[in-house]
Write a structure and sequence with these properties.
Length: about 375
């Protein structure tokens, strides 16, 4: 399997490294810290050992005094270790702990706060186009996504089909997170229709034939499992009434495609359009995360219907980004961006589309989506019409 250099930069002190299964956390730690003392809690014997007696970690460290870096994979499986790790950080400040996790649910309830800020919170995302270089293909990314586990597989379609089942078995069912796994599986399919759209919890509940509060809980579980997230509306200095509800996205375009039911009444361009918007969203989240979280990602929609897919607000300024799945652009595609610039004259606007021509129209930079994704690198400012 080819190893790609990741944009993720680790802090010098101890840190949590969260990310969905298969995003390359273990691969990165093994490559960046080959001499680290590693405890993989996915291994049944180690899981049983540390679950029954967390103090064994102290014994392991005493037996390896020269191992200054300690990697504990899937820390959420034994959250009781966090109290001991807190003590060890206090006792041995030269030790550095890297605690990886694919779910924050147990830790939220039982432990992250125990470290009292002594460990930073970092995230690993699916591949970015710029990390892959010539290996990146927009067409393939829209079908299979960019989860490293899937991307590096000889049969990505098969791995992708089993990806959600892996979570259901190892995270949801094994941990008893939900009482009705079949009901939760139906929810995963139903909410896929909300990918890239404003989340209507009541509509999802009707589709799943469950109570609204159950769907609210399921959405929170998706976020805790790092499989999905809600994107808030941008309201700073709002002069127009905006919608109150967030948008929803699965964390990866391929995972979305694998869960989205398709039939004779489904339009392929509708699904590919949602996948494209989600692909841009996951790149923007990675760009912000790897760049030090100096910016935040929003969307914008007024009650009158004017909308912009993404708003980036932070240290470097204010950007509005619209994503279109068509190979040509028209003035009507710029309407939301122009309305946003009327509200926020300082904003820089970008239209991304599936064509090849670059242009500037009405002060808006128009870019091929693939060019934009390939050029997106942490620490590099977003492009604009005046740059």
């Amino acid at each position: 399997m080819e190893i790609y250099d990741r944009f993720f930069k680790a802090p010098e002190k101890s840190f949590f490294l969260f990310g969905p299964r298969g995003t390359g956390k273990s691969t990165w730690t093994a490559s960046a810290h080959p001499d680290a003392l590693t405890v993989n809690l996915l291994e049944p014997e180690l899981f049983r050992s540390y679950s029954s007696r967390p103090e064994r970690l102290r014994e392991a460290l005493r037996g390896n005094p020269d191992r200054r870096t300690v990697v504990i994979d899937e820390i959420q499986r034994v959250p009781e270790l966090l109290g001991l790790i807190h003590q060890l950080i206090e006792e041995e400040p030269r030790r550095r702990f890297i605690l990886t996790g694919s779910s924050s649910r147990k830790l939220k309830r039982t432990g992250v706060d125990l470290l009292a800020g002594r460990a930073a919170l970092k995230a690993m995302h699916p591949f970015m186009a710029a990390e892959l270089g010539d290996a990146f293909s927009l067409e393939k990314a829209l079908i299979f996504g960019l989860v490293p586990l899937v991307f590096s597989s000889g049969d990505p379609d098969d791995v992708l089909r089993s990806y959600a089942a892996l979570y259901l078995k190892e995270e949801v069912q094994a941990e008893g997170i939900v009482r009705n796994v079949g009901q939760f599986s139906r929810f995963l399919e139903s909410i896929s229709f909300s990918h890239g759209s404003i989340l209507n919890v009541s509509a999802v509940a009707r589709e799943c034939e469950v109570e609204r509060k159950t769907v609210v809980g399921y959405v929170q579980i998706l976020e805790d499992l790092l499989l999905g997230y809600r994107l808030p509306v941008f309201r700073k200095r709002a002069g127009r009434a905006t919608t109150e509800h967030p948008k929803f996205y699965y964390f990866d375009a391929g995972v979305f495609r694998s869960l989205r039911p398709q039939g004779p009444l489904d339009h392929p361009e509708e699904i590919s359009g949602a996948a494209l918007e989600g692909l841009v969203a996951q790149h923007m989240r990675a760009w912000i995360s790897y760049g030090g979280d100096r910016d935040r990602l929003f969307f914008w929609r007024t009650r009158a219907g004017a909308e912009v897919d993404f708003v980036v607000y932070g240290d470097d300024g204010l950007w509005a980004i619209e994503v279109k799945n068509g190979a040509r652009f028209h003035d009507s595609d710029l309407r939301g961006l122009r309305t946003f610039q009327t509200e926020y004259p300082e904003a820089r606007a970008i239209l991304l589309y599936r064509g090849r021509e670059r242009a500037v129209r009405h002060g808006i930079l128009i870019l091929p989506c693939e060019d934009f994704l390939r050029g997106l690198k942490p620490g590099r400012r977003l492009p604009s019409a005046d740059s």
